[in-house]
Amino acid sequence: MSKKILVITPVKHIQGVSEILEESGNVTYLEDPTYDDVKSCINNFHAIFTNPNKSKVYISEELIQVGKKLEVICTASTGTNHIDTKYAEHSNLPVLSLTEERDVINKISSTAEHAFALMMISLRNIYPAYNSVLEGHWDYTNFIGRQINYLNIGVIGFGRLGSMFAKYCQAFGANVMVYDPYKNAEKFGFNQFNDINVLLERSDGISLHVHVTHETEKMINAEALSKMSSDVIIVNTSRGEIVDEIALINFLQSNPTAKYATDVIDGEVKFKDKKESTLINYANKNNNVLITPHIAGMTKEAQQIAYQHAAKKLQGFFFNENQ
User: Fold this and answer.
1) Same domain for 149 and 280?
2) Confidence check: pLDDT of 275 > 90
3) Do 48 and 8 contact (CB within 8 A), yes or no?
4) What is the pTM of this model?
């Protein structure tokens, strides 16, 4: 019997992905569905193929319960916080991801590049300067920036992306400082601190490169923010759940020269309307927050590598099942 695959993320623009999926089963494409759209049809499918970047759909306990025929969830991502993985495990429902696919994800530098771009854009006030020009002004005085080779840049998390970002900053002459209790950054020539508070206090800019765990959730909270300089730049291309956004907004209101540049927001997959986000509402009225719509990993090259490999993992799952 041909397996039925529900695709709930855009894939038709990515070379080779549809072909792999269609070799694996009978595919239905819902490339921008609502939660209710998926809930209404999930019982007809054996697999879901997803990605968190554009999706409005959190694959919840409820969806898994409704999807009685589901045999597997496949996500073309390293992160899985758009899936109730605990309930999936409880239900013996496999979740295929790229989290441990080192040979594949080491080829993808897009997110680290985006983090570096957000840092540089923030240091040079490019976004508000651009808006000023569109308003008919031509005055540099409100947009005097910083030179990165005179700055201390803190990197929290020295995994694949954190190490790439650190190397970019080092290449531009920054003094790079690293906090990661599980990695050795010193052997790569970086200053490493065992106490995160020292890094927070000394950094002109901080970039977050950690997965969401009980240890990292809301790690950038009121206490952490109180250690930072009044004009710090914080970059987040990890997940929104790492930052306590209410504490962050309070900090930014008290320190208007500080900036937050992010590609993610807290609870982004669970929002039916992103206008519900407190952070987006704050950004609409203030210039010290820059938000991009989870595009850090969305380059042509990265999508081809990640989505093709995820599709092949799903294909392999069904192939092995039939052996």
Assistant:
1) yes
2) no
3) yes
4) 0.88
Residues noted as catalytic: 239, 268, 294
Distance CA 119, CA 146 (A): 11
Check: CB of residue 8 under 8 Å from CB of residue 40: no
Verify that 273 and 152 share a domain, yes or no: yes
**Domains in the chain, number:** 2
Distance, in Å, from the CA atom of 239 to the CA atom of 245, rounded to the nearest integer, reads: 12
Q: Which domain holds residue 175?
A: 110-291
Nearest Cα residue to 79 out of 320, 297, 319, 321: 297
The tokens describing 156, both together, are: 């929290």
Query: What CATH number is associated with residue 311?
Result: 3.40.50.720
User: How distant, in Å, are the alpha carbons of 58, 165, 219, 225, 244 from that of 53?
Assistant: 11, 20, 22, 27, 20
| Side-chain half-sphere exposure of 25, counting CA atoms within 13 A | 26
Encode pLDDT of 107-153 as tens digits.
999 999 999 999 999 999 999 999 999 999 999 999 999 999 999 99
